[in-house]
Amino acid sequence: MGQFLFSIFFLLTVNAFADTATKTTTPPSASEPPPDLIVRPLAEPPSVHAAKSTSSHVSSDVVTARSKLVPEWRFSAGPGMVVYGGNLAQTTGNGSVGYALNFGALTHLSEYDSILVGVDLGINSWSFDTGFTSSNTSATGIQMLATCVYQFPSVFLNELRPYAGISAGPYVYIAKIPTSNDSTLYLEALIRPGLLYQASNDLAFGLETKFGILGTDFVFAPQLNVNLSL
Questions:
Q1: Fewer Cβ within 10 Å of end Cβ, the chain: N or C?
Q2: Cα-based torsion angle of the residue sequence 84, 85, 88, 90 in order, rounded to the nearest 10 degrees
Q3: Of the candidates 125, 85, 118, 84, which has an alpha carbon nearest to the alpha carbon of residue 101?
């Protein structure tokens, strides 16, 4: 009887030892790495996250500030006419028509403003009969005006942009006669309504109908122009 009990005890002991050895030597599953080999991402400290956010905000502000320091310029040039209703240097009689070549440059006061400032330049060519029987004479007018323009919102699918402005400054009138040249300085002040057709972001075509005072008399100066933005 004792030998029988000893045999049962021995078999149970061997079986338990075999189960323990099997559990110890079985490799972990490939889909479940050992706990000491699992790499977990570390959360960024609050100070690092705040520094990155501040750096990004500062960089954005610097880019915006630099863009505002370099405003867009709009240059224009084109032909026109000048209809003058007065008496320039007492040579033209009542009324005269001249031909003009106009130039201009405008820039925004700031990046988001509709107000532009710049210069309104032009060369006018006048021809007339001075009364001398032997020859006709001519004259050249040079306008050098400071200008300010307000640009209205776009209409008709953002292609047409109306605007209005004022220009004022000196106008040099040089009359060429057979014996000498006669130069006279006038004050010119103009109102300049116009309309731009925006062909692209950098190119526009304009029609402008300036009118105002040259010296003490009325002047009408319509013009066509091409505008290039840089």
A1: N
A2: 150
A3: 125
Residue 125 near residue 102 (C-beta atoms within 8 A): no
- Show the domains of the chain with their CATH numbers: 2-64 (no CATH), 73-229 (2.40.160.20)
**Residue 116: its pLDDT value, please?**
94
pLDDT at position 79: 96
- Bigger pLDDT: 129 or 105? 105
Single-letter amino acid, residue 76 = S
Let me know: does 215 contact 173? Beta carbons within 8 Å.
no
- Three-state DSSP string of the chain: CHHHHHHHHHHHHHHHHHHHHHHHHCCCCCCCCCHHHCCCCCCCCHHHHHHHHHHHHHHHHHHHHHHHHCCCEEEEEEEEEEEECCCHHHCCCCCEEEEEEEEEEEEECCCCCCEEEEEEEEEEEEEECCCCCCCCEEEEEEEEEEEEEEECCCECCCCEEEEEEEEEEEEEEEEECCCCEEEEEEEEEEECCEEEEECCCCEEEEEEEEEEEECCEEEEEEEEEEEEEC
Q: The whole model's pTM is what?
A: 0.63
